[in-house]
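INPUT
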Amino acid sequence: MKSLIAYIFRRLLWTLPTLLLVAIMVFFLVRLVPGDPAQLILGDQASVEDLAALRARLGLDHSIPAQFLTWLGDVLQGDLGYSITNGQPVAQLLLDRFQVSAVIVLTAVTLAILIAVPLGMLAAWKQNRATDLTVVVLATLLMSVPSFWLGLMFLLTFGLTLGWLPVVGFVPFSTDFGAALAYVVMPVATLTLVEMGVLTRMMRASAIEVLRLEYVTHARAKGLSERRVLLRHVLPNAFAPTWTMIGLVLGGLLGGIAVLETVFTIPGLGRLMVESIFQRDYPVIQGCLLFTAVIYVIVNLIVDLCYPLFDPRVTAR
Amino acid sequence: MKGRLNFLIGAALLLVILVMALTATVWTPFDPLALDLRARFLPPGGAHLLGTDEFGRDVLSRLMSGATQSLTVAAFTVGFATLFGTLLGLFSGYVGGTLDRILMVISDAVLAFPGTLLALALLVVMGPNVYGIVLALGIAYTPSMLRIVRGTVMSLREREFIEASHVIGNSEWATMLRHVLPNCIAPITVLATSMFGWVILAESGLSFLGLGVPPPQPTWGNMLSTARDHIDRAVWLGIFPGLCISATLLGVILLGDGLRDRFDPRTENT
Amino acid sequence: MKRRSFLTQVPAFALGVSALGGPLAALAQGTRPLRMRLNADIRSTDPGVNRDANTDFIMSHVVEGLVGYRDDASVGPMLAESWEISEDGRTYTFTLREGVTFHNGAPLTSAEVVWCWSRYMDPETGWRGARDYNGERGLTVTAEAGDARTVIFTLDTPNALFLTNLARTDCGQTGIYHPDSLAADGSWSEPVGTGPFMLSQWERGQYLELTRFDDYAALDTPRTGLVGDKTPLVETVRYLIIPEDSSARAALLSGDIDIMPDVATADYAGFQSNPEITTDNVPGFGVGGFLLQTTDPVIGDLRMRQALKLALDAPQIVDILTEGLAEANQSVVPPGSPYFSEIMATPFQRDVARARDLAAEAGYDGTPIVLLATQHYPQLFDMAVMAQAMLAEAGITVEVEVLDWATLLDRYSSGNYQAMAFTFSARLDPALSYDMISGDKAEQPRKVWDNPKAREVLKRSMIESDPAQRQQLFDQLEEMFQADVPMIPLYSGNRISASRAAAEGYASWSVGSPRAWGVSLDEA
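OUTPUT
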């Protein structure tokens, strides 16, 4: 137990340089990008004096390193600043938007795992037979459809033609559970299908690897039932790499979900990030990217800590 | 001959796409960029086999020319990520120590950045052109390759044949090239083939957000992305590029599976 | 309307959550809100301070000015019943309407007007219009109260555009709000205006909800622009923020929104043939076209710019861009303007051979001209692609470079481009239309037209108040503009809205705004 805590501590310590690097990258990358928030706020009618005045008000007239130090100092004190666009505190914005994205991402990934794991196992077991090819083709098709396209198709089919589900809008779960559910069904379904493709393929590949290992042959030779071999011996070992993949997927999705959030008009973190980039809302972009980096680090830490649960070899060490 | 069927189907699909892309460099039925404002939204059939788009451009010609673009972008990006990822991964895993630590911090930082967003930011800096996309996606995907190679190298480092190579008096370089690298080929192949698909998809996602390869130069991604505005009157504009992406991905994945089976030393035992 | 309620209920049953009552409970409350699309969130509720077009038009429901624009962009009375202009054009005496109350019940008096003016003129406020009245641009305006219903504005020099400027939407219509709008520390809290609606809820990134102001004192003149009869006919209005066009279109078709105020021209035909949907199409007041950098080594040659203009088939481009709904217009003055004259209506002449000759005379050697465009406004991208193909016919090579909107705007304001597809927002007076392009590039690099003689004429048109005299000046400007070709305007755009049958009375407006007053909801 003690070594576990020490391990977590060491891991967290090592994330500090990573996070600092992310902070530096975010800040300077964002400033490198041409475009001026003051210009965007004032539009095509802005005069030179108006622009200068607004830049001064936004603190954009200082040198970039100076701005960075101010920002970093504030962040270390837990102050992420205020949105240039609408004056809201960035921390508040992030938390509000994160909740929405997290619900969708977590539900979708859970569902995707529940479908992908058995499907991948099945394909691996029936490798190179018709069932396998069907699963591979299906998974590939799912992987090869851009999520916005799948989303739009859902929107048109279930929202418009069949009229089963509302097309736009969002209600927080805390306000009205039933209504909220109706709004998130389509985005969750889309994301589930998209992620299912990747995970099925991953599961199939690692299960095939495991099936080739000697101890599976041994187990079969010992006369264990096929069912037992698959569930007891293949599944836990094959799940390990998939689990790593899940970590990557979860971490990446918070940013990657932007496209779906745009199609389904969901006020999530991804949309916030993309919109803030287009509006050059520096404090929000910086806050978003730093926040997702932290989430990514945490998710991967959790994934690593859970590893022993699935991979017997890790426990043994 | 396990994996033979998948391999053959994959190879056949890719061959068709590749022939299409290569043909497009010398010949397309129509000029893919030529506007014909009197022939907008012609449905498939007739002179325009796959119909025309919102500017009366021939969809088939654009698909062919798009194949060239999409495959080039994907090939260069995967090439970039594989080259740098492998090199850095070899060093990181083999040399270890401080260099390894630094590289891991950097790759963690890049991975922690949402890939699309890194691309988005870089694209705005570089300007949305083919080089910008290749560089942006290349940088975003390099750490994954680095990690896979590094992991493999680390597991190999302690193995007997590496020791043996040293004992015979082979230099570090020779050992790395002759003994370590060949053993990394299987995981590299698998990742590279998956990446190929990711790039084509990522490019279409960027197009959706208005930052892909700038039209009028067609790519499947930007064709698919603009098609959404005309979905209710010209559904074929979305279907054909979508099918091309799916076919390519399917081909690459099946081929990748087949290749892995070939390269994987363990396969020969069975 | 049976269909609509059926649709709302299905998801509840389908998901087995009807017992939880979500959608059904909302339905049972009887009146549902009027739902309209907004393509992006507003920036703040402080009129004319932190704003964009959406902010301006949402806030026009809540806060009103002394005067405001009519449909045809002329200026009409709103909170002012009438005004008198002194002989020398330097004193404007406004009489306020009787019986107007703020949302907090307080009556509107001259005190609030003067108080607002002093807040506007305070540099700390950061009001967009401040520089137009504080002397920095050559005009100083002061306000004082007469009796409770009289406000006197004094100008140090006569100015023909004073009322037009007061009505400017980007300055929040110089709206009058109650001092209660500020928090105790003097910062902006929430708008307490006189408008037909009150802002009741703002879920950032999701929706804005407006509630009817029951004591609204409506004018008895017909509804027009941001003035006239603004009676609210529905209890609540909900503006749903839907950034993606294809999603908004689906939402309108499925009945999830009632009104889409900004329909893309490509969707017009589809909506028009749909019996459940009413469309309204009006000409716009903006300008879309190509800016040409006159200081560029290649494009700087007048013959080259003329060649570009002659090589374009502008009517064809506009026909495609607007699906035949708008006419090509080579002036920056929109056809809807009362000053739109014969010379401004000069049609485009395409002459590819002549273009080729001019390019040759200018010594053009085939080097690609870089034309900047963005996909943020699809029409800018489309016009660039079409121009590229048309110019190729005249032997002029064009490379289209696609940038995101912020970058394009940055290049615009620094003047760092060869050619650019650009769109200007609505200018409601020809003087403002010419002013948006004319200026000294050394001082303001964003200005595309640097002609000192034209600037002189423009200056006179801003002081002159006699319409006939102004017309003459504008015609003179147009002639100079067409001779210099610093820009190739293509069209003034159009505004299309689509409403479901249940929502009655919505009208598009050239200046473009999702106006919810005068719209009723028939849920029979």
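end of record. The CA atoms of residues 3 and 314 of chain A lie 15 Å apart.
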